[in-house]
Amino acid sequence: MFNKVLIANRGEIALRVIRACRELECKSVAIFSEADRNSLHVRFADEAFCVGPGPSARSYLNVPNIIGAAEVAGVDAIHPGYGFLSENAGFAEICASHGIKFIGPPASAIALMGDKASAKQRMLEAGVPVIPGSGIIDSLSVAKKFCAEVGYPVLIKATAGGGGKGMRIVGRDADLAAGLTAAGGEAQAAFGNAGVYIEKLLVRPRHIEVQVLADEYGHVIHVGERDCSVQKPSHQKLLEEAPAPNLDADLRVKLNEAAVRAARACGYANAGTLEFLVTEDGKYYFMEMNTRIQVEHPVTEVVYGVDLVKWQVRIAAGERLTRRQEDIRPRGHAIECRINAEDPDNKFTPAAGKLGSVLMPGGPGIRVDTHIYSGVEVPPYYDSLLAKITASGRDRADAIARMRRALFETEVRGLATTVGLHRRIMTTPSFLEGRTHVTWLREELLLPQAAAAGSHGG
Amino acid sequence: MTDNHDEAETTELLTFVTDRVAPLARTFAQLPVMQLRVRTAQGMITLVKAAPGAADGAKAPAIKAAHAPKIQEGEPGRAYDTINAEAVGVFRPAPDIPEFGERVAADRVLGFVEALKLRNPVRAGAPCYFVAQAVEDGQAVEFGEVLFVVERGDTPPQPEPAPLEGSVSLEHIEAPVDEFGYAFEGVWQASDHGQTLPPAH
Q1: Is the CB of residue A272 less than 8 Å from the CB of residue A260?
Q2: CA pair distance A393, A367, nearest whole angstrom
Q3: I want to staple A220 with a disulfide (CB 3.0 to 4.6 A). Which of A11, A29, A214, A318 is the partner?
């Protein structure tokens, strides 16, 4: 086991890693920005180093100062958490060149899966379905042939694209030519490159992801799936659960097996997640791989009884993964609500400032991962996640009942939060029936509410 | 810090106190900070000013206060400017460290912060008068830590400032390790207040 680990992160995930280290009897070193001086991760770590001012680019992304702190503290390893430097292959390489173990996958796997095109290619080779896409479209007949194969609707995208520029949704053959012309023209104007390709557009898919765990000796297992379909309009997750409700047993097996195959295909080690889009007709498509621990890992930990963060550290320290696939079975159900400092009634605009009273729930079946406390300052520079409340029970209904009770107990004063929105989700019939998809929140809750507000002259 | 502190170590400590701490304490009395930490191989020493509100200030890390803007009012004595660490690493003073009161050009290198096998130069940044070096050779420093005390104004610092209210004097010194074997943390208190402060964490 390592003697000392530096946690290159902040907030609740830094605390989560520090807790794992302490339980493993391994010393922890926190880094912090000047804006986070009073943060709990600074208090709970064995040592702490200020690495820069508030803005992330000069602190939590300040590689020279982070490595400097690692050298001064004499750490054996760095845990990157999620976000910041966690999926930066260059940082993983810098760690290695300074004799510091990066707690995560090999830099080669981060680089491979971080590039959309190379990831997709490798998944195809491994027999994992990807969202059907054409090559660069050079004639209308090629486009028509592709669309006939995959079926409408389709999405035309710019090869040089980004930010929604050069994108067009086309629902029928008759509109294809006009769509290609418009997208091509927009792409030419925006990127100086008129190249476009076509992708199958999935309508109201579910976001289902599979957790994998692999040691450095080739032993790979999956730790079940999570349903993360409740998303903000920006596609950021708001609520996750495990196992996925109403998931066909055969499809579950297929997803899990595909994830293990994918992890093997990219030479993976440590914890990772394969994200899939699943359509109503039972088809599934690889979307991307997250080569790090994820925000929503607690639902998996609770349901499967596997301490993912401790395994991350143990695997990086060279231990063998002793959990066998046949031992991995779900017990009951778990739901996680992300409590963010943002205003759901105002396009989820992030809020920053001093918190008033903070009361977090407790009692049977409740786990809280948070770095906030009454009166603490929420800096404007970082992710707005304040807390994760995870409720578990014998079954989904039981978990929902506990979550309702937990949200009733939860109080976060001083800033706008997502607590109220989660309370509404917990009483929405289609959620209770487990019928969510990636645009569900917008269609079922946000748009009707906006319309109601509008009709009242607001 | 070792447990077997012997005569040699005690002598070392005394040398350290007379050579390093006394001048630093004098400088500290004029610094716009309420608390200053010095770590060396011999141990760590925290200098704390006992002044109104100092009991609260004692809990805050030294660097927080050091980042406060130059204090012109309500601070006893003269307010100096500080040069703080940008890099995290090991501090080394420049071989030609200026004398007290010496005029220093903006590009003058006063020291280095060593990290990643690199020596990051610490420059004066703007013309100033040199007052003091605030950390020891070989000490690990974090971002924002006070490395040097300087005067950026037009008036050179006075070589022997008059005793000021709230100035610091040596009150007591503890052994490098206490009877439980914990690392030494000495506390200097202003003699004119006599307020007992806990050693900083």
Answers
A1: no
A2: 12
A3: A214
**What residues of A are in the B interface, CB distance below 8 Å?**
34, 37, 49-53, 59, 64-69, 71-72, 98
DSSP A322: -
In this predicted model, what pLDDT tens digit does every residue of A20-47 receive, in sequence order? 999 999 999 999 999 999 999 999 999 9
ipTM score here? 0.81
Who among A52, A67, A71 is closest to B143 (CB)? A52
Spatial separation of the C-alpha atoms in residues A165 and A153, rounded to whole Å = 18
Report pLDDT digits (tens) over A394-445: 999 999 999 999 999 999 999 999 999 999 999 999 999 999 999 999 999 9
Give the predicted TM-score (pTM) of the model. 0.81
Under DSSP, the state recorded for A140 is H
* Residue labelled with tokens 């799936």: A225
A111 by DSSP, 3-state: which?
helix
Residue of B nearest to A35 (CA): B64
SS3 A196: strand
A292 is catalytic: yes
Burial B149-160 (b: 16+ CB within 10 A, else e): bbbeeeeebeee
Minimal CA separation from A7 to chain B, in Å: 15
B156 Cα to chain A: minimum distance (Å): 31
